Sequence to fold (53 residues):
Amino acid sequence: MSIDGSIFKGKLIDFDEDMICLGDVTDIGGSTGKELIVSLSNVVWIILADDTK
Fold:
């Protein structure tokens, strides 16, 4: 997911028409976080992928 030019990856926890919530989040620099909640108006793009393979 790209948010205002920053790239994050994580597990999709929940979303609605206004926000998205990711868990086990990592940014492009390798910093990690437990959860990220962001307004969809700030999201530039999202790629959904199943990485359980």
Q: What stands out?
A: The beta strands are 2-3, 6-15, 19-27, 32-39, 43-45. The CA atoms of residues 26 and 44 lie 17 Å apart. The longest strand covers residues 6-15.
